[in-house]
Each structure stands twice: as structure tokens, then as C-alpha cells.
Amino acid sequence: MNLYIIKSLYSIIYKSAARPELSKKDLKEISRVSSSNNAKEGISGMLLYVEGEFLQLLEGEKEKVLTTFSRISIDGRHTDINIICESHQKQRQFEEWNIGFYSLTGKEFQDKTGFKSIKSYFEADKYQDEIMLVFLLKQYAELANKQT
Ligand SMILES: Cc1cc2nc3c(=O)[nH]c(=O)nc-3n(C[C@H](O)[C@H](O)[C@H](O)COP(=O)(O)O)c2cc1C
User: Fold this and answer.
1) pLDDT digit string (tens) for the chain, length 148 residues
2) What global pTM score does this model have?
3) What is the CATH number of the domain that holds 83?
């Protein structure tokens, strides 16, 4: 019975601000290293980049998710890291992606969500709902593989 709790799936969603000097090449490198590390750790998830801001979901075994997140949280390539939700899950939502990565402009994000930035999206409290967030990230995960 306890085994179920120890091995149960855990997920974290956080947002952060990218260092202004971050280039496309840097983003590609983050995505490459994340994909390789997450595959080894059995972690899946999605990283969204909207004009200087990140929104990331990580899911997997609790200990591995927490270890990965603590590494991410001391990474100097972003600041203002805020956990939006963390919880146990019954099943993976992003099974196919060790890390889906999708980058879009504020304008594109606004056309989709009505908000011009991740920050303003979260200022509207009702959108912090986990189900809504997973739904949003999934739509970009579907597109992630098609983006070069
Ligand atoms: C926004 C952002 C998201 C990241 N996501 C991940 C991730 O999902 N998995 C991961 O292992 N590293 C991620 N990283 C990179 C880590 O902070 C760290 O640089 C990396 O895990 C170190 O891996 P290495 O020891 O193999 O070089 C992310 C970094 C940033 C800035």
C-alpha cells in the first residue's frame, strides 16, 4: 500500500523569467539537455517559452521530479521561479514527451489565451487551475514536435 505512495507520480508546474540575454541557441541547448536528462530519469513534461518567460510542467517519480526541479531552480539562466502547483497524479499527461519545447511570441500567446504574457495570464486568478494549465500546455506539446 505504501509502495503506491512512494512510487506514485508527482508533478510540478512552475513559471520563471528568462535572463534577457538568452538566445535561441541557449533555448535549444536547454531543450536538448532537458530531453536527454529527463529520458534517463523517467521524467516527462513540457516547457513553454513566451517572449522571456518560461512555464514548465515536470512529471515522474516524486524524488526524481524534486531533484530535477532543485537543479533547475538554481540555474542562472532564469530568475523569479514560482511554483504554481505540485501534486500527486494518477497518470502521466505528457507521456510522449521527455520534454516538449515550444517557443512563441507574446502576440501568438495572446491570440490563443487572451493574455499577452505568462505573467498576465497568472494575474487572472481563475486561470491558475491545474486542469486548465495542463490543457494549455498539452496544446503546445502537440505542436512541439512540428516546430523546428
Ligand atoms: C527553464 C529551464 C528548464 C529546464 N528544464 C530542465 C529539465 O526539464 N530537465 C533537466 O534535466 N534540466 C533542465 N534544465 C537545465 C538544468 O537547470 C541544468 O542545467 C541541467 O539539468 C544540468 O544538467 P547536466 O548536469 O547534465 O549538465 C532547465 C533549465 C532551464 C533554464
Assistant:
1) 555 555 689 999 999 999 999 999 999 999 999 999 999 999 999 999 999 999 999 999 999 999 999 999 999 999 999 999 999 999 999 999 889 999 999 999 999 999 999 988 888 866 668 888 999 999 999 998 666 5
2) 0.93
3) 3.30.70.100
* Range of the structural domain that residue 72 is part of: 2-144
Beta strands 44-50; 100-104: pairing state: parallel
Of 10, 16, 14, 18, give the one whose Cα is nearest residue 66. Answer: 10
Closest atom, ligand 1, to C-alpha of 49: 1
Ligand 1 pocket test, candidate residues 37, 58, 83, most atoms within 8 A of CB:
37
How many Å lie between the centroid of ligand 1 and the Cα of residue 1?
33
Distance 2 CA to ligand 1 centre (A): 30
**How far apart, in whole angstroms, are the C-alpha atoms of residue 56 and residue 63?**
17
> Exposed/middle/buried for 139, CB within 10 Å: 0-12, 13-18, 19+?
middle
143 Cβ closer than 6 Å to some ligand 1 atom: no
Q: Is 39 in the pocket of ligand 1 (CB under 6 A)?
A: no
How many structural domains comprise the chain?
1
